């Protein structure tokens, strides 16, 4: 091989080597600048000064709004021959709910027919009296008596017809029709076909408009300074796990319940989806804001390790710092610190247990 050829090969090798080094250097630079795995996935909460809050739980249950409840009691005696509703049905005002066969209806119809016959006779007498008075054959007294008899019979017939109308009597079927006095839901039913009804019986059924309900909660004496009218309340029930309903305390009783020895706090709640069913037990969470300020952090950010509380701080250089903290006040979903955490620091609130273990291991 000639000297010139050897020189070209050496030069080519040098250039190739330099190009390979530059490529490796560029690859190394890209790896160094790439963020560490998991850093972009961190979920943090920025600590901030807030008013310290205190919350308590009040137990209670859903009740009907008494202003929207109608209890129906029969005005007559008889036997229920047929019903057209079931417990829980939605009914409209004027809808026939049941039919009642009663001897009182027979008596009223008989009286009405008798009086109508008497009225026809009395009208004929009045017509004769008017003619005789016009011919000066009878006195004005006779005319007055005939007119009075007609008026009395008309009044009696109107009275019976009013009673039949009040009882929703159906002359075709020979029964009294029990109609819904208001629109709503049948929340209580005490009758069925064949039920014997007495005028002194208790309510036959109850209808309630469930568009809004009352949440009645128990306030014990120890909580009296804490619970106030106008406070917001968050309603929870085991029937709807993970779901909450917002309300406001509208009234607090001034008299202790003699049996439970508690005051009743009332929360009026809209019931758009009819989820708040009367009789359902609930838990009401009420919160009071205090004037004192402190650093607030979600309670879910706490890490309990070796009988001490920690939080995981994401520092400005993206590194993670396990920091031991002392809780001053703990609320339902907040913890408050007067020292140990500065406003603006970022607290890890997701996967913090795993990241905390890794951070503690790396410190060792």
From TrEMBL:
Belongs to the membrane fusion protein (MFP) (TC 8.A.1) family. It comes from the Bacteria. It holds the Pfam family Beta-barrel_RND_2. InterPro entries: Beta-barrel_RND_2, BSH_CzcB-like, MdtA-like_C, MFP_Cation_Efflux, RND_pump_MFP. Keywords: Coiled coil, Transport. Residues 213-284 form the CusB-like beta-barrel domain. This is Efflux RND transporter periplasmic adaptor subunit. Residues 69-209 form the CzcB-like barrel-sandwich hybrid domain. Residues 294-350 form the Multidrug resistance protein MdtA-like C-terminal permuted SH3 domain. Residues 105-170 form a coiled coil. The keyword Coiled coil applies. GO terms for molecular function: transmembrane transporter activity. GO terms for cellular component: cell envelope; membrane. One of its GO terms (biological process) is plasma membrane copper ion transport.
